Amino acid sequence: MSGLREFVPPARRMAHILSEQKRREKINSGFEELKSVIPECAQNTDSKASILRKAVDRILELEDELRKYTDDFRYEPRDPVEHEE
Questions:
Q1: Element at 79 (helix H, strand E)
Q2: Please, what are the domains in the chain?
Q3: Are 38 and 56 within 8 A, CB to CB?
Q4: What sections of 7-84 are H helices per DSSP?
Q5: Which of 41, 45, 70, 73 could lock 35 by a disulfide, CB 3.0 to 4.6 Å apart?
């Protein structure tokens, strides 16, 4: 069918519109949550792409920090100290 649209019942069309709107709201809510937990985004009106980039950068920073702390505090068994009697 070139150029002709198939008839879609109004109820089905409305259901599609509402489900798409709900999907967008969930995505936008997720971006708002990301903005609230990423310090670099808290006061800005960044684009969604910028928010994602800053979130990835922050996650990588936190991973590096965690790696540093786990390396610093890694348990390494020592030879038992023998007590003199």
A1: none
A2: 10-72 (4.10.280.10)
A3: no
A4: 10-37, 48-72
A5: 41
How far is the C-alpha of 15 from the C-alpha of 13, rounded, in Å? 5
Q: How is residue 50 written in tokens?
A: 């910028």
- pLDDT, tens digit, 9 for 90 and up, residues 3-31: 677 888 899 999 999 999 999 999 999 99
- How far is Cα 1 from Cα 7, in angstroms, rounded to an integer? 12
How far apart are alpha carbons 33 and 27 in whole angstroms? 10
Give the helix, strand, coil percentages of the chain, each rounded to 5.
65, 0, 35
Both tokens of residue 54? 């800053």
